[in-house]
Each structure stands twice: as C-alpha cells, then as structure tokens.
Specification:
This protein has nine helices and 33 strands. The chain is of the alpha+beta class and 692 residues long. Helix 5 packs antiparallel against helix 6. The longest helix has 36 residues. The chain is globular, with a radius of gyration of 35 Å.
C-alpha cells in the first residue's frame, strides 16, 4: 500500500513547482541615479539615510559641513558647519542618528551625534576621559549632540540644541573617533536601548595602550543631573582594571567600519585596516585582544574590502547563512559579496557591478533602506545605485507591452493553484505536530542527553536518553576543546588559548537569564547543546536541554543545565589552561533560616489560645499552661536527644529554647493574653526548668 505521507509530500512539492513556474524570476539588478546635481562641488565623506524618508540623507565632510541631500531632486541643503562652533577645529570624523530619530515625543527625536577633532582645551574637565594624567595630550576628540527641526516642508538645525557630551584626550591628530554607532537590533523595551558606541582608532606608538590600540567605548549619552553622560552599569563586566570604565573592548586595531549582529546583541563585526590590506573580524563586547590576542576563529575574511559591511538577510539574495554584505573590486568590475559570521568559510559573490555603473575610482558606501534592500552610494562621484524595485515608480525603468500581446490569465489555472494551496496548507497543519516530535526525538537519539564526572578515574561519562549506564567514557585529558551552544548560537568556547573566566561566566548567566524571560509561544524551541572535541579529531555532541513550546523533552530543568555547564566549563578550563585560568569567584547564596529560627503567626496564635483557655479555668494556673505551651513549641527535638551529646551542645540548645520561649511570652503579653503577674510567673518557671 502506498504511504499517504509520501503522496502528500509529492503533492506539496508539486504545488511549489507549479507556483514557481508562474513566478517572475527575481534577479538583483542595479540602476544608476544621480545623488546630487553636477553643480555641487563640495566634499562628502559619509551619508546617513533618514529613517522617515527613503530618499533623503544627512551627509558630512571632514571640513565640518553637515547637509541634507534630497536624492529625488538632487539638491543639497546646508545645515551647519561644525568648525564655527570650535576655535581649534581640525576635522569632522563621524555622525550617527539616535534610534528614536523619527519617533515624535520620545527622547532622541530628530537628534544626531557628531564627533570631531580639535586642539586640547583646558576647560570642560568634567566631561573629559581620564587618560594618562602625567602625559600631555595635544588633541581631543569631542562628541556633540544636535537636534533638527523637522517639518513637512523644511528641515533646519536648532543651533541652541548643541550639547557637548564627551571629550577624549588624543596623543596625535591622526587618532580620532572614526565611528559613532547605535545597535539597531536592541528594541526600545530592552536594556541597552539608546546607548552610544564610539570607536577610538589605533596609534602606532601606543600598541599596548587600552585606549589607543583600537578601543570601543559605550556610554548613555542622555544628560543626568550635572553629568553630560553616564556609564552603563554593565560596562563593569567588560572593562578591565587598567582602562576607563567607558571601554568595553580594546586591542581592535585600526577599525574602519563596525556592524552589529542580530543573533547576539553583544557581538559585532569590524573591518580592520592593515598595512596593505583589510580584513573582516568578529568580536564580542569584553574582548581584550591585548591580553588574549585574536585567533583564527575571529577572522571571517581576508579579502581586500572596499566598502563598509552591512547585515542583511534577504530572500532575494538567498543569503540566509551569509548575512554580511560588502564590496570588493577586481580588475574588471565590482563584486557584491556575502560572508558568513563564522570563520573559515569563503565569501560568496551575489552580484557583479560593471565599471559603467560604479566607476573604478568610486568610494562606495552600502546602506539598507526601510524595505531591507541594498543602496550603494558613490561618495566620490555623487551618484547612487539602487535595485530596480527600490525606487519610485517614476524613477524606475519601465517596460511596456503592446496591447495585443497582453493576455488574460487562465481562470481555471488559478482555481487549480488555489485548491492545491489549500490542500497543502491542510496537510501541513495535520502533520506538523507529528513531524515536530519526530524531529525532536531524532535529535535526542543522535546526541547524548547528560553527563557525569568520575573524579577518581578523571573521566567524563556520557549517557543516552533514559539510560542509567554510561554509553561512553572519555578521559578528561583527552579533550582539546569544548563548545557551548544556546539555540544554535555559540556562547562559549574553551581551548588551550581561550580559558574560562568570571566574565565569561557572567555573560553565560546573563544569556541564560534573557532566554528564560522569553515566553515559549508559537512552538518556540529552546535548546542547549555542548560539543566536545577530542584529540583524535572525534567530536561528542550532547543535547542537555530541549523544549518545544510548553513541553520539555529532557529531564533536567533549564536552571539545572545552566549550573551544570558552568561548573563543567570551569573544570575543563583548569584542565586545558592550568596556568591561565583565573580563580573562580563564588557568588554567595542567601542563607535560609532554620526551622528553629522561624517564628510563624500560627504558632503564636496556638500558644495564645492555650494560655487564654487555661486562664478561664479556675482550677488551674494559666501561667503553668502558658509555660508548657511555649516550651513544648520549641523543645520536642531536645526531649529525644541522646545522653551522649556534649554538654556544650545541650547548653546552646537550652539557650535557644529560652530565648524563643521568652520571645513568645512577650508576644502574648503584648497581645493582651497575659497579665503582668502571669508573665512573671511563666518567665520564672521557664528559667527554672531550663536551668535545672
């Protein structure tokens, strides 16, 4: 009998092929357009696309000119000249828009930041970074905040909005802040939204300086009281003792460009300028390449990159696993290439651009518009390349078809396609749940589920799912590398060159906590995988935690797995990096009060009720019964104590019972259950009984 599932799969494939046969082929083609008219003679160093308008840019030049470019009209409107606001102005180096630039009535609306170089100033010491106080720094990098007046018919700078945010002393005018950036993947409700990053370029005479070896600063640029900016509390996790608290990464070299990664808000990719070439590297906030030099795992591409890089996943480009886009020039043309965010993977050409469209002497800059499509701006020739479907209809190339060649589509064909789509959707819904669990079980069968450590034999014991005996035993000294993944993203690597640390533990803790906050809706998958590399090139894969939606498919809870992998990371780090692994700082856990120390409202009420009952009985002394209730409340464990206990332990127990009983008496007296006379009699009898 033919399997119905096979028929259904072929049905779905047929639907896809049928739809694809009628779909128009999507190719990446560029059209050249003027950015500015030929009458414009000024210089443009960088442009920034305005988020509220797809055809307007803010540009700046090193001479300090900031202007508004309207590409649809090829016009340039001057906004300001930064050198008019500084007597010792050298050059303008960077510009960035606040994430809330287009959000009215929010902090940061119509706000942008600029960075320039000027001669050192003796004023504004409170806003100056403290760097080598014993050395004279002749220049300073200054970050200004500006605000625009935006309206439907005009755009102008509010000159009185200028505010100095930060000054950085510089040893030479060649050092600057070449980049200002906000992480675009941090949402407004997340911690870290609106934090400003600034890159300090490297200076060859300071190769080991925490600031001038290529550093990344992070600040909150909002004014707070008398402070022009504040340092985020999380910076302490990344900055080192010998660097300012604003520094979150150092030893980056000469950074030309920086791109944030959507997969991890703490990771970024940067283009580094070497003597004769450029290369694409990946780094994480907290990386200190002065103490731990970058390895091959940080190197993504060694190509000669002629542009900035952008992060873009677009189905039109088929670059799901190659989201980093940049330009490379060959002898015949330009290549638009895509790179993965993991090392040792070659870049992928995705488009060829002839010199007729993009001149050989061009200075290209890549941008992404609101439709997540690529725009290439030629800063040298004041032109722009846009894909054919990114422009206005009036600006797009139009192909007309004679009326007699236009045919009405077949209604019967559309009807068949719709029926096939409905059938495919129904089948997908019916078998989605079944396939989901099959895939999960397949993953669990192919991976080990948990592990333990045999300390006597120094072995790692690996267990399959539902098994109580180890399926594999590995000598710990045979392990050469350990990798930890959360939801498919690498969050920790330990080998002989990369030891574990307290900062790494804090980052893993933070990553797990953020993942824990996410709700498991829409069949969301949460997965913790560990891969162990052995010296014989063999790997062992463990799926320690797997949850799909509201069903956990592994035994251990998420918090248990978190603690287990952190403990293992410390152990294997001490094995692989005995001399370089730092001492683990154990965070103290809150001490739970013992049962004897707990005073509950119920026990007080019970003792009070007994005392009150005996007080109303004329033939008994209420103080005797109150005394009995109080001593019995705390002393049952001591009545069964063995005679062999030491005298000191017994005295300590008696003292504790005495204190607790007297506290109970005071509580009953304050609530009106005991008179002064009854309280004194009960207190005397408790003391006599415990002292005897």
């Amino acid at each position: 009998m033919i399997d119905i599932k096979i028929i259904i799969k072929y049905l779905i494939i047929s639907v896809g092929l049928l739809l694809a046969s009628f779909a128009k082929a999507n190719t990446l083609e560029f059209t050249q357009k003027p950015l500015l008219s030929s009458d414009f003679r000024g210089e443009i160093s960088t442009v920034v696309l305005l988020p509220h308008h797809p055809h307007q840019f803010i540009s700046f030049s090193t001479f300090g000119d900031v202007g508004l470019i309207k590409q649809s009209a090829s016009t340039y409107q001057p906004l300001l000249n930064a050198k008019h606001f500084s007597d010792d102005f050298q050059r303008l180096t960077a510009l960035a828009l606040h994430p809330n630039f287009a959000q009215e009535e929010k902090i940061g609306y119509a706000t942008f930041y600029s960075a320039h170089i000027e001669s050192a100033s003796l004023t504004n010491r409170s806003m100056k970074l403290t760097v080598d106080e014993d050395k004279h720094m002749p220049f300073e990098a200054v970050i200004f905040e500006w605000q625009l007046s935006l309206s439907s018919d005009s755009t102008a700078i509010l000159t009185d909005s200028r505010r100095e945010v930060l000054r950085v002393p510089l040893p030479d005018s060649s050092v600057s802040i070449p980049l200002l950036s906000f992480n675009p993947y941090i949402k407004s409700w997340q911690k870290g939204y609106g934090q400003l990053f600034a890159v300090i370029s490297a200076e060859k005479h300071y190769p080991n300086h925490p600031l001038f070896s290529g550093a990344l600063l992070r600040i909150n640029p909002q004014k707070f009281g008398l402070r022009q900016y504040t340092v985020p509390p999380d910076n302490i996790l990344f900055s080192s003792n010998d660097s300012p608290s604003e520094v979150v990464s150092t030893g980056l070299g000469n950074v030309l460009d920086l791109t944030w990664l959507k997969e991890d808000e703490n990771q970024f990719v940067f283009v580094e300028q070497l003597k004769k070439t450029t290369q694409l590297r990946k780094a994480t906030l907290g990386d200190n390449f002065l103490l731990q030099p970058a390895t091959d795992e940080h190197l993504l591409q060694q190509d000669i990159i002629f542009s900035n890089s952008i992060y873009l996943k677009n189905p039109q480009l088929s670059n799901e696993h190659f989201p980093l886009i940049f330009l490379e020039k060959t002898s015949d043309n330009w290549l638009l290439k895509a790179s993965a965010i993991t090392a040792n993977i070659s870049s992928n050409p995705i488009a060829t651009i002839d010199f007729s469209l993009l001149n050989a002497n061009a200075k290209p800059q890549l941008l992404i518009n609101s439709a997540k499509q690529i725009i290439i701006v030629d800063l040298a020739n004041k032109s722009l390349l846009a894909t054919n479907n990114t422009s206005d209809v009036s600006e797009s190339p139009v192909q007309t078809t004679p009326l007699e060649e236009q045919k009405e589509p077949s209604n019967s064909l559309y009807f068949i396609v719709i029926l096939l789509m409905i059938a495919g959707a129904i089948v997908a819904v019916l078998f989605r749940q079944d396939d989901k669990y099959k895939n999960a079980k397949k993953l669990l069968r192919s991976h080990y589920a948990t592990f333990t450590i045999d300390k006597e034999k120094a072995e790692l014991l690996l267990f399959k799912r539902h098994e109580k005996t180890a399926s594999a035993r590995i000598a710990i000294n045979n392990i050469m590398k350990n990798e930890l993944y959360l939801n498919g993203e690498l969050i920790s690597t330990i080998d002989k060159n990369s030891p574990f640390s307290n900062k790494a533990e804090a980052r893993i803790d933070q990553t797990f906590k953020e993942e824990k906050r996410h709700k498991m809706v829409d069949n969301k998958v949460r997965k913790v995988v560990m891969i162990i590399h052995l010296q014989n090139q063999e790997t062992k894969q463990l799926c320690l935690y797997l949850r799909e939606g509201n069903q956990r498919l592994t035994k251990a809870r998420f918090e248990q797995v978190q603690q287990q992998v952190i403990d293992w990371c410390w152990l294997i780090s001490h094995q692989l990096c005995k001399g370089t692994t730092e001492k683990r700082v154990i965070k103290p856990k809150p001490v739970e009060p013992t049962q004897k120390q707990r005073v509950t409202h119920t026990s007080i009420q019970s003792a009070a009720a007994k005392a009150n009952k005996q007080e109303t009985t004329p033939t008994h002394d209420s103080s005797q019964h109150t005394e009995k209730a109080m001593t019995n409340h705390k002393a049952p464990k001591h009545q069964d104590a063995k005679p062999a206990q030491k005298v000191t332990a017994k005295n300590e127990d008696n003292d504790e019972v005495l204190i607790n009983s007297l506290n109970k008496l005071l509580e009953l007296k304050s609530q009106g259950f005991l008179s002064e006379e009854e309280f004194n009699r009960s207190k005397a009898r408790i003391i006599d009984k415990l002292s005897s």
